[in-house]
Structure formats: C-alpha cells, structure tokens
C-alpha cells in the first residue's frame, strides 16, 4: 500500500474513559466515519479531545464502549496489527532527536518488520515515497533536531505515512506553528486519501479541512456531522462561551469576541 491508499471506516460506540469510576474524562462518545473522511474535533481545553484520540488509537483502553476499524474491534487485535492500520502524530514533539530525517521516517516501518531483521528494500521504498509526498527529499540527511517546527511536523507526518496506515490520527498538528506552516499542514492533510482525524484549535482551519466535524464539551460529543452543519454560530458560541459570527464575504470563516458578562 502506498501513501495514496484509500482509508478505512472507523466507528466509536459509547466510548468512555476515566482514571477511576468516580472521575470520567469522556463518556458516551459515538460516531462513525466513512473511508476517506476527514474529521476535525474541536472544543475548549479540558473537553476530552486528547483522551478521545488516545482511545481511538489504543493509547488507552476505554472503560466503556469499543472502537472498530472496518468492523474489527481494535482492542481484540494484536498491537502490531493496529499499528499497521492506524498512524499517529502526537502533539508532543521531541526536542532533541539524534537521528536523521530518513531515520525518523524509516521508524514508521517498525510495525512491518519481522523479528530483528534490518530495513528491507520495501521499507526504504515506502520511506522514500513518504519523503517525496511531503517534499522532504532535500532534508533526508539532516539531523531531525536541526529542523524548524514546520519541517519537524512534516517529518512526523511522513513517518506516519511510511507506516502505510488506512487511518491517521493527529493531536493538534498545527500547534506552535506560524500561519504559513499551519496552512501548509492543513493543505497536506486535505490532500491525503486516508481517513484523517485531527484535533484543532483554529475553527477556521478546521472548517477548511474537515468533511466531518465534532464538538467536544465537558467530556461529551455535543455535535457531529458535516462540518457545515456542525460549525454554526449558535453551536460554536455555546461550546466556547464566546460570541461567534459567520463572515458572509467568504465561503468559510468566523470571527470571535468575548460574550457580554
């Protein structure tokens, strides 16, 4: 499978998680994505977005509910099999990674390695394909720690693509990036044919990126559906506690101001 592969379906059914029975961070979260959907999950800090992502990629075992990829429960599958299906780009970025860009991208091939065998020609081909897909060939010999924030983010996405997943999950992929690099990352994610799930703070970027959108508030998914029906003035105002106005002069775009006290 190449970087141009088509994504898989993902279904979450009544997902809940908390550190103990008296403290739940998310509860009763259900939604379904078709292959190739791009889901933007938005909501205020503490709404449960990152916890939900961790349940979706098996970083956490839900205390209630199940997650299915093409009708297979990911928690009933071996971890290696899940890693072949789902690629992840986390918000935390390594500050000092003593490897070259090519080395980092090749790490995406670990779920496909057999025993202690070294990298195969197929591994190197997939890594090269991912580097080319993200226009990173000229940086392949650079040390990861010497790159800019935007370059590092692209390398980590290339690593996830080299993994040959059907689904890629990203936690705040535009965090700490300048406007140019934010737009580049969103354009890149929009060009992928995989199923993409991302948490995003910027509503306008999310509206441009998403085919589906979800609003998270107080650990629950308060709205889910096509982005144009989820991102409304009333819903966004209620979720974030601010005044939200649609900009009529553009296809998508909102302005925000503090609500009157």
pLDDT < 50 runs, ≥5 residues: none
Separation of termini? 54 Å
Named CATH architecture:
3-Layer(aba) Sandwich
Question: Strand arrangement, largest sheet?
Answer: 6-7-8-3-9-10
Strand content: 25-35%
Give the helix level as a range of percent.
25-40%
CATH C-level: Alpha Beta
Average predicted confidence as pLDDT: 90
Name the helix and strand elements from N-terminus to C-terminus, one letter apiece: EEEHEEHEHHHEHEHEEHHEE
Decide which structural class fits the backbone. Answer: alpha/beta
Would you give an account of this structure?
The protein is of the alpha/beta class and 261 residues long. It has one domain: P-loop containing nucleotide triphosphate hydrolases (Rossmann fold, 3-Layer(aba) Sandwich), CATH 3.40.50.300. It is 31% helix and 25% strand. It is built from nine helices and twelve strands. The strands form three sheets. The protein has a six-stranded mixed beta sheet, with helices on both faces. Strands 2-1-4-5 form a four-stranded antiparallel beta sheet, with helices on one face. A hairpin with an 8-residue loop joins β1 and β2. α4 packs across α5 and α6 packs parallel to α7. It starts with 9 loop residues before the first strand and ends with a strand. The model has no long low-confidence stretch (mean pLDDT 90).
